[in-house]
Design goal:
- It holds the Pfam family KTSC.
- InterPro entries: KTSC_dom.
- The chain is of the alpha+beta class.
- It has one domain.
- It is built from four helices and five strands; from the N terminus they run ααββββααβ.
- Strands 1-2-3-4-5 form a five-stranded antiparallel beta sheet, covered by helices on one side.
- Strand 1 and strand 2 form a beta hairpin.
- The radius of gyration is 14 Å and the shape is elongated.
Length: 102
Amino acid sequence: MSDFIKHMRKYTQELFWYIYNDKEINEMIDKIKADSSNLDVFWYNKDTKVLTIEFKNGTAYEYSNVSPKVFEGLKTAESQGRYFHKNIRGVFLHKKLKKEGN
């Protein structure tokens, strides 16, 4: 991997973590409270097709190339945890997000 790609990857991650931890920006995000014993909140960016899920244990993951259909399925699932395990976890590329102080 070239140094430029490594630098851009690191810069992109740092920028996302800054946005993720910015209180004002977070207040503008339309987070959906999950009805689950495992999932806490989640939100979707339809322009980038990125689904972000925060879990009750405090961890958060960003899932790439998630279709609007999968997002709608998660929102309306009878069991959001079961839907996540069957249709999202292990299906989409993901990365763990860091919160401030971690």
